Amino acid sequence: MSRRVQNVELDISNDHVVLYSICLLLLTIQLAVSCGSYSGKNKPKMFGDFEAQRHWMEITFNLPINLWYVNDTNNDLNYWGLDYPPLTAYHSYIMGVINSKRLSLLTYTGKSHKLFMRISVLITFWIIYIPPIIAYIEFFSFYKPKNLYFMIAILYPGIISLDNGHFQYNHISLGIFLISFICLISRYFTLSSILFVLAFNYKQMELYHSLPIAVFLLSTAYYSFFQDLTINNFCHLFKLFVAVVLTFSVLWFPFFYHGVAFDVLKRIFPFYRGLFEDKVANFWCTFSVLIKFKSLFSIEYFTVVVLLVVLPSLLILFAQPTSVNFKISLFISSLAFFLFSFQVHEKSILIAAVWVISNNSF
Q: What is the distance, to the nearest Å, from the Cα of residue 258 to the centroid of all Cα atoms in its chain?
């Protein structure tokens, strides 16, 4: 009996050693990538991803909030204008406050600011992104060995390259979404809804996950309603509605107050820029060499295509709101948006890819 206990303790200890080793390997890779180059380095006139992030911190720290998304003499929107939702802008502002000595308006202070940004990416990566992956694989995955899946999930080259290599913070919205999903399948619906609104208001690409989440919540409420015709179900739906509206209201209030909310929306959803601009590996850009979709169809048609691709999985999810159907629908929706939506950025594939590598139970 004592030998069995010792073996169990040894296995647990070994699992922890492997986990710590994987984390140390990740940190080593991140530090190595952080010492490398990045897109646009020393290339005028835009200077790449570092300059974009630095400029957003510069703008949000030095200008009043009503000018963050508005073209101005001190804020040329053609030069890395803010095009992400308010939570990204608030994050940029906080980073600017922390490192305010390095952020004089219209004064390039890149070299002295890079180390700060590299460290900030590492800190948020380990605080917001890694914990939900560990929690999800540890408590919601039934496949062994868990350390193998954990290693695959956190060592995904795409997010390391983009965030640690190119000064980006995609892991923040992805981490918040993973926490939201954990809360959702744990039946903490209100908290999950609030967290998902936060994720969406950090990166609008989280819209890719919104349809399955909405259908799952609606389906769960629908079947609960017919099983238990009580006032509690109405209160539950009303509580979700209030939580979502209040969270949006808090984040967007300053922009509505100053009358610039529409300017923010135009920057976040740039319908005026057409189907696509740069080269990206989605359906429309790939096959535009054969068929000129941009000149043949309007944006509304491409929205319909996305909905048609996602619809079958949503119907199945509504009929059978199981955990497996929910996960599959999230993947189908995120991939459909990447392949068939408009103004898709190449890094949007992270929305589908990170979801797949974090799951091993489809």
A: 27
**Using omega within 30 degrees of 0 as the cis cutoff, is the peptide bond preceding 145 cis?**
yes
Q: For the residues of 139-158, what is the DSSP string, one character each?
A: HH---S-HHHHHHHHHT-HH
> What does the radius of gyration of the chain's CA atoms come to, in whole angstroms?
22
State the 10-residue block means of pLDDT for the chain, 362 residues long: 47 74 95 87 76 91 94 88 95 91 62 86 96 87 77 92 93 96 92 96 93 91 68 78 95 96 91 58 70 68 84 94 91 89 77 81 48
Q: Which residue, among 203, 109, 198, has the nearest Cα to 162 in the 3D structure? A: 203
CA separation, residue 136 to residues 20, 50, 128, 139, 349 (Å)? 17, 32, 13, 6, 21
List CB contacts of 282: < 8 A, sequence separation 6 or more: 276, 338, 339, 340, 341, 344
**Token pair listed for 156:** 């995904």
Q: Round to whole Å and give the CA distance between 275 and 267.
A: 15
**Biggest CA pair distance of the chain:** 77
Q: What is the 3-state secondary structure (H, E, C) of 40-77?
A: CCCCCCCCHHHHHHHHHHHHHHHCCHHHCCCCECCECC
CA atoms within 13 A on the CB side of 277: 7
Q: From CA 185, how far away is CA 183, in angstroms rounded?
A: 6
Burial track 4-24 (b if 16+ CB lie within 10 A, e otherwise):
eeeeeeeeeeeeeebbeebbe
**Residue 72 bridge partners (DSSP):** 75
Q: Which residue has the tokens 């980006």?
A: 168
What one-letter code names the amino acid at 242? V
Cα separation of 182 and 58, whole Å?
35
Question: What DSSP letter does each residue of 108-138 carry, written as one string?
Answer: --HHHHHHHHHHHHHHHIIIIIHHHHHHHHH
pTM confidence score: 0.89
* Two structure tokens written together for 135: 């929690």
What does the block give as tokens for 1?
Answer: 């009996």
